[in-house]
Write a structure and sequence with these properties.
Blueprint: E1 2-7, E2 12-19, E3 22-30, H1 32-36, H2 43-65, E4 74-80, H3 84-101, E5 105-109, H4 110-116, H5 119-122, E6 129-134, E7 139-146, E8 150-156, H6 162-172, H7 179-187, H8 212-227, H9 234-260, E9 264-268, H10 275-288, E10 291-293, H11 297-300, H12 305-316
Helix pairs in contact: 2-3, 4-12, 6-7, 6-8, 6-9, 7-9, 8-9, 9-10
The structure holds adenosine-5'-triphosphate, magnesium ion and fe (iii) ion (FE).
Subcellular location: Cytoplasm
GO molecular function: iron ion binding; tRNA N(6)-L-threonylcarbamoyladenine synthase activity
Cofactor: Fe(2+)
Length: about 350
Amino acid sequence: PLVLGIETSCDETGVGLVRGHTLLADAIASSVEQHARFGGVVPEVASRAHLEAMTPTVERALADAGVSFNDVDAFAVTAGPGLPGALMVGVAAAKAYALSLGKPLYGVNHLAAHVCVDQLEHGPLPKPCVAMLVSGGHSSLLLVPDVASDVRSLGSTVDDAAGEAFDKVARVLDLGFPGGPVIDRMARDGDPAAIAFPRGKYNDGTYDFSFSGLKTAVARWVEARERAGEPVPVADVAASFQEAVVDVLTQKALKVCKDNGVHDLLIGGGVAANSRLRALAAERCEAAGVRLRVPRPKLCTDNGAMVAALGAELVSSDLPPSDLEVPADSSLPIETVTL
Ligand code: ATP
Ligand code: MG
Ligand code: FE
């Protein structure tokens, strides 16, 4: 079956087309430039941009895949979590398409979609696998017996998300928004061992993370330099900060694998695009005998293909579609894959 997926939880209007595990189109319109001068996503601006981008992005995805509306067998849409007004635009559009074409609609969890998207690149997910979801709003360790129906949270951040820490540190360093990609780039010319930044909750026995202490430590370090009238070694700060984040992430992810006897680790979400996270995870997984799966960077950040991928998984698992009254739920819990 051909599934069209719609994503509007944040600032990307994404429309993907998927058949089984095959990606046919992945069209994206982003309002990120409209938010950059505010240093973060402005919800009203995002909702309006989704409204304007929705129809053209759907049409572009259909054209890219060389199919028409009538070829679509099912629609999937991000029902949550995310910005309420932004989610509502996607959910309303998906309902209108499904109703007018008489096709089933699946309201899906954005976070499960970040996990499921890897099937488009590396085939069916092993059952079970461990998934580490690291994005702008979430940092969680999950045990995933079945991405269509059984996702269990083992731990998550107690304060900032990993991507949020990247964005805040980028602001401290005047590097603009979003911070992840630019810190990743700057860090290539820096020394990851230059500054010993704190690693929150490193050996505390939990599967939780904490990044706000690290963010504050970076801000204090930079302020002290500026007060002393000394130049800030931006590349070294970026590299040392990034190393602290990816060290904790990979250490905890492998602890979950070991404690649960699972030999497959998947990393998803926007921060999974980080080059140092990908490299250190590969190194540590190799040493631990764990198989690592990370989607290509374009599939890690928000997109419509991931929503279509999860929709296709629900269809092939024979799960019932959603009611046409399905709500947008801005705080949808990670365990609720579809509603
Ligand atoms: P959520 O998925 O939790 O709802 P979101 O949808 O806003 O949040 P994503 O698009 O999945 O998040 O990820 C965006 C985040 O990923 C931003 O915080 C951004 O800085 C971060 N990010 C993107 N690329 C990189 C990178 N190369 N290195 C580190 N962080 C990155
Ligand atoms: Mg985004
Ligand atoms: Fe996301």
